[in-house]
């Protein structure tokens, strides 16, 4: 299915981003661009600065230098959040345990009071159907598996009709089958509505499975940006080390 021409994604530009905490530089002048409607993955080992970058992308922190622009507006500008529709899918799902699935998904609409309860119920049903959870409106978060919670969180993001969705480790702590479902949902949404998807992860299989382009981070810098094939062929030592990392089990012989 072709993307809806009225629901196109938005461009994201990061330029010269720097951030220090107590004299320790965590982001070291990194930069990259995400094209409208692209599935762009930022990957790297723990401690590479991915989480700090994500907090800057959603406007929770301000850089010491450099800037982030969404469309033609800097993230530091309050107008950005009103001009563009941005949604975030948190690592934990961040569902409210006291609300039903339907209430969680429809929370944004209920708070803004732009639609009647009947219209909200219809939108909620539609978005849950998109992520394969039709008919779960009355269930509680405690009744859901980890994969289902992430799909509910995705449905909640879709209610905003977003131009940009930011994903924080979307398949972490999921079993392989649930992870595949989430990966398919990310790709299918990109194809269906043309949303820009920016995915932050350390999981190599997810990155290479869904990305149109990948940026590999390490020590607060973007080491390389390219297509999955270009990243696989990259000769940078730190990139090769991350991509080829495997768990080595060392068996120690107990003294007799």
Number of strands: 10
- CATH structural architecture of the largest domain: 3-Layer(aba) Sandwich
Which stretches are low in confidence, meaning pLDDT under 50 for 5 or more residues running?
1-6, 247-256
How many structural domains?
2
**Main sheet characteristics:** 6 strands, mixed
Percent range for β-strand residues: 15-25%
Structural class: alpha/beta
Characterization of the model:
- It is a single chain.
- It contains ten helices and ten strands.
- It is α/β, with parallel strands linked by helices and 256 residues long.
- It has two domains: 10-85 and 162-256, P-loop containing nucleotide triphosphate hydrolases (Rossmann fold, 3-Layer(aba) Sandwich); 98-159.
- The strands form two sheets. The chain has a six-stranded mixed β-sheet with strand order 6-7-8-3-9-10, with helices on both faces. It has a four-stranded antiparallel β-sheet with strand order 2-1-4-5, with helices on one face.
- Helix 5 packs across helix 6 and helix 6 (146-158) packs parallel to helix 7.
Give a brief description.
By secondary structure, this protein is an alpha/beta fold. 34% of the residues lie in helices and 24% in strands.
List keywords for this structure.
2 domains; 24% strand; four-stranded antiparallel beta sheet; disordered C terminus; alpha/beta; disordered N terminus; 256 residues; 10 helices
């Amino acid at each position: 299915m072709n993307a809806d021409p009225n629901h196109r994604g938005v461009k994201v530009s990061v330029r010269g981003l720097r951030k220090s905490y107590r004299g320790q530089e965590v982001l070291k002048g990194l930069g990259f661009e995400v094209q409208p409607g692209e599935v762009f993955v930022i990957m790297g080992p723990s401690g590479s600065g991915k989480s700090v970058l994500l907090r800057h992308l959603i406007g929770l922190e301000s850089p010491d230098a450099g800037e982030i622009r969404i469309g033609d507006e800097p993230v530091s500008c309050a107008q950005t959040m009103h001009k563009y529709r941005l949604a975030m899918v948190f690592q934990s799902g961040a569902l409210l345990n006291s609300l039903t699935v339907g209430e969680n998904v429809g929370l944004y609409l209920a708070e803004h009071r732009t639609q009647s309860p009947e219209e909200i119920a219809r939108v909620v049903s539609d978005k849950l159907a998109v992520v394969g959870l039709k008919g779960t409106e009355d269930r509680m978060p405690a009744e859901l598996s980890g994969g289902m919670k992430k799909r509910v969180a995705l449905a909640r993001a879709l209610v905003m009709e977003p131009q940009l969705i930011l994903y924080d480790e979307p398949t972490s702590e999921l079993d392989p089958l649930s992870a595949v479902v989430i990966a398919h949902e990310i790709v299918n949404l990109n194809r269906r509505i043309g949303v820009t998807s920016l995915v932050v992860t350390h999981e190599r299989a997810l990155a290479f499975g869904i990305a149109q382009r990948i940026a590999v981070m390490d020590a607060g810098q973007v080491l390389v940006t390219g297509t999955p094939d270009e990243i696989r062929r990259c000769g940078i030592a730190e990139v090769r080390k991350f991509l080829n990392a495997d768990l080595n089990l060392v068996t120690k012989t107990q003294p007799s």
